[in-house]
Amino acid sequence: MQADSAQQQGLYRPEFDHDACGIGALADINGERHHQILDDALSILVNLEHRGGTGLEKNTGDGAGILFQVPHHFFRKEAQKCGQILPAEGDYGVAMLFFPQDDKGVEDARRVFEEGCAEAGVPLLFWREVPVDPHDLGETARACMPTILQAFLGRPDDTPAGDAFERRLYVCRRTIEKKADAEFALRDKIFYVCSMSSRTIVYKGMLVATQMRRFFIDLNDAAVKTAVALVHSRYSTNTTPSWERAHPNRFIIHNGEINTLKGNVNWIRAREPNLYSPVLQHDLERVMPIINREGSDSAILDNVLEFLVMNGRPLTRAASMLLPEPWDHNDSLSEERRAYDAYQSMLMEPWDGPAAIAFTDGRTLGAALDRNGLRPARYYVTRDGRFMLASEVGTIEVSPENILTSGCLGPGQMLEVDFARGRVIYNDELRARYAKEKPYRDWIAEETLTVDALDRPAAATPAEDAEVPAAVRMAKLGYHWDDVDEVVRPMAQQGKAPLASMGIDAPLACLSKKTRSFFDYFYQLFAQVTNPPIDALREHMVTSTTLYLGNHGNLLEDSRTACQLVRLERPLLNEEEFERLGCFEYSPQEGTPAAKMENQVDDDVKSRRAEVIMQDQYEIMTEKNNNMIGKTLRVLTESYDDYTDSYSGRSYMDAPDIDGKIIFTSPDFIKEGEFVDVEILGVNEYDLLGRTVK
Q1: How far is CA 118 from CA 578, 618, 651, 657, in A?
Q2: Which listed residue (21, 117, 194, 563) is catalytic?
Q3: What is the pLDDT of residues 526-537, one digit of tens each?
């Protein structure tokens, strides 16, 4: 529950929130913990201060934070101060919490938290108030500063340490969050779980980067040691700052925007009713819904990554599902790699940026760049066993002779720092490893249907206005003289796209009283504030129009059934592909999310819409059927009619009980199920009429 998650007002839409920020990641490649890692990470954060936003008050920041491993020795010392004894490392979790400012709100929040823990069967050991020094905060930041507490949680006896305990904490947190959302006493008050894990913890706030050390006193203690740290200086493109919107999230830091967010969110919601988790099993329902729709694009991306990991997906595998490499037009990839990427695209649509992310679960550090490649992610590997990555160079001083290797992530590339093996694993090795896990190539070859594999439809008839001058035809299609003079002519004469303003004040095409171009009805959801426009032709390598139709498989497990789809090379269907079209009015089905939605479409409106589309389809079908006259089709005989002395059947184009039939005569007796060649002689609405030929 977020303080700014109140009723939507005016034209503001929280789902369009984006961030464009400074990121930094630092790790000891061998997994050894040092306070120096934390200190250097905070130095990187300070050097990224210019990438963070501030208000008119220079000491009120857009947000800054750090994600690192749970410092066991430090917390053991702090527990003793509270008269408590901590269990062994890994046998307890720590929740970092933002609670309401007022005492009554804190009391209600603690009650809800404790009730959620009890419901989930996770013992609450004790509370700790996080020591902070707010004197340097601006008035705005201080006015909305939450009460910051830590809750220490014990490992249940029936839950092993490690992944199982992390999942238990995840289920517990989602239980608590849903109880808080339903709690009337917490309405319009902050209740936010920054992190809740046995491995990692997040310190963050509505801060300027330079305030982190002074505000969070814990960070200055030499006993706070970690092998990995992620830092983030936030600059939101179009969102109001708040304490909970600061990064890091629970797994990631993110620089950029997710410009496909609306579609990504819709697809996640659509898949939720059909998900089955071999890992969470009956607990799956307790963590639904997957995403918090009031979060920013970064927070939603983090929600999905966390969900995949908690359901058994390896961290880097889950990241590769969200941010795939450009594979569809990349001939340099092996067939095995291309098959893996194709399979991934059947499970999950790409979360396209521009986006650069770094992520950790406390056991490994990863980083990835989306396939557009429009965000910097530069890294160094040093001879003394350290790895560092940032959104720019110069964030921390590194002696040149200490640099073992350096580089920059390219479009769709990722890497992983594996603490257990003490090495950096780069993109090709990572993706090749995952590509070998299952026979993806065989699955696709045997199960996936492509349009190109089907028989071609009959040749289209020439357009009605083929002889009409080009200028007149362009006018009919919605093009105007200014389009020709300002766009087409410069492109033809100069060989380059004309420059123009990013904005447009023309009426929406659907509301315009003038004839508009077909393409005016489609616009990219793209954060043009900080990004160049994407040209699908020039950016052919990283742009894919591939679309899959059918029942998409379970997101949480790999199976050949996920490949039982029809592949389209483009999302737009032409008339030939509309030749066979079924249309059904929507009817609510019990237990589906759609049946519970408000503002259901009236039956009259549904009928009218169905009539319109079927009339268009009838005209197309009539034209196509007339074009079949004189052609010979291979027909499967299905029945014989004594009254008309004729047979009926269907060709490869016709679905039984849905499409029209082929009615034909024959001088010879034909058995049911026998194939015959039929010459088409006429048309009767949806049915073709003909006779057998030898």
Answers
A1: 56, 61, 63, 56
A2: 21
A3: 555 555 666 666
